[in-house]
Specification:
Layout lengths: L7 E12 L2 E13 L4 E5 L6 H8 L7 E8 L8 E2 L8 H6 L4 E4 L3 H4 L6 H12 L4 H14 L5 H4 L9 H13 L5 E5 L7 H18 L2 E6 L2 H7 L2 E6 L2 E7 H6 L4 H8 L48 E5 L2 E4 L18
Helix pairs in contact: 4-5, 4-7, 5-7, 7-8
């Protein structure tokens, strides 16, 4: 059951990187919230700022210029902690990483250390956040490997990452992330490098563990099929900004932003005729250093018009359903034509 207050709130988050070629505005004014036990999906093409948003929550981008608020509510303190205000290398955020908020990265082979066994790497995570004896830590590590579906866990405990398949390595990453039973799991494209069969197994595993542990999940992906399987609520990002956010059923049934509509049209469906041309979004995501003025999607949008050179308004269509677009504002009166009224 969800708590009264969101477990995590991101408010007007900005993440910029100063580079020789100019300022990169990787995330520019993103806001969302997630409740206890729910799954939030963040979707968009590569270069839209999804991973930067996720890593900002754990303060894993110390060289960035970060502003806004990331409010985390722990079990023991009613007052939220603003993670943006914490030193990225300080003890306060180190105590939260792994223990309260854990993260699974996209490629397990580069995330796991090749010179240590998988057992040693799970034990390291356990020792960092829990005071357990060697025997207790070992039993917990083996139980986590069993929980994520590693067969013959005690024997595989001494294996090195290269001795495991991609799917098994990803299960090990999940075991490490969940070894301290975090309240929030951030999964950054956890199935991209896996074949469809293993992908389905990993998604079922995450969904099962979320339910068993009453854990919140932030799923970062470019794949709307993954969003449909896991998410309760969806944030659609484009070039560092939010294009649309809505409950998952509402987003699939009634998408409003042209970018969301284009993403949904691009899904390959089982009933698509074999000779039918597949839909695609023309062009590509621009370089963040040269983002278009106004609506950032306007150079690729089939519905773009003169007003799109100005910053678009946020229009409300229903409870927690908004889109940032000029299409729903009357050109003559300037009033929103699709505002939700209770």
């Amino acid at each position: 059951m969800s708590d009264t207050h969101p477990i995590l709130e991101v408010l007007d988050l900005h993440v910029h990187f100063k580079m020789l070629a100019g300022m990169v505005r990787a995330v520019d004014g993103v806001s969302f919230a997630i409740e206890r036990g729910r799954c939030l999906g963040i979707v968009g093409e590569s270069g839209c700022g999804k991973s930067v948003t996720a890593r900002s929550i754990l303060r894993l981008l110390p060289s960035s210029q970060t502003s806004g608020q990331i409010l985390y509510r722990s079990d023991t303190d009613n007052q939220p902690v603003d993670l943006v205000s914490l030193d990225p290398k300080g003890n306060a955020i180190r105590a939260i990483r792994g223990r309260d908020i854990a993260m699974i990265f996209q490629e397990p082979m580069t995330s796991l250390t090749p010179v240590y066994t998988i057992g040693e790497q799970i034990l390291e995570s356990i020792r960092q956040h829990q005071t357990l004896s060697e025997d207790e830590a070992y039993e917990l590590a083996v139980s986590m490997l069993n929980k994520v579906g590693i067969p013959d866990a005690e024997r595989r405990f001494g294996d090195y990452p290269h001795q495991m398949s991609g799917g098994m390595r990803q299960r090990v990453m999940i075991a490490i992330a969940l070894s301290c039973q975090p309240r929030i799991l951030i999964a950054d494209e956890p199935t991209t490098a896996l074949d469809v069969t293993i992908q389905a197994q990993i998604l079922r595993l995450i969904r099962s563990l979320q339910r068993d542990l009453d854990m919140s999940v932030i799923m970062i992906t470019h794949d709307l099929a993954v969003i449909a399987q896991l998410a309760d609520f969806v944030v659609v990002m484009y070039l560092g900004q939010m294009a649309e956010q809505a409950p998952v059923v509402e987003l699939f049934q009634n998408p409003k932003h042209p970018y969301t509509q284009a993403l949904l049209r691009s899904i390959v469906r089982p009933d698509t005729p074999s000779r039918e041309q597949l839909h695609s979004i023309s062009g590509s995501v621009p370089d963040p250093r040269n983002a278009p003025s106004g609506c950032r999607f306007r150079n690729r949008c089939p519905s773009a018009h003169d007003r799109c050179v100005q910053d678009p308004p946020v229009v409300t269509f229903g409870p927690r359903h908004t889109a940032t677009c000029w299409l729903y504002v009357d050109e003559e009166t300037g009033t929103e034509t699709a505002v939700f009224r209770s």
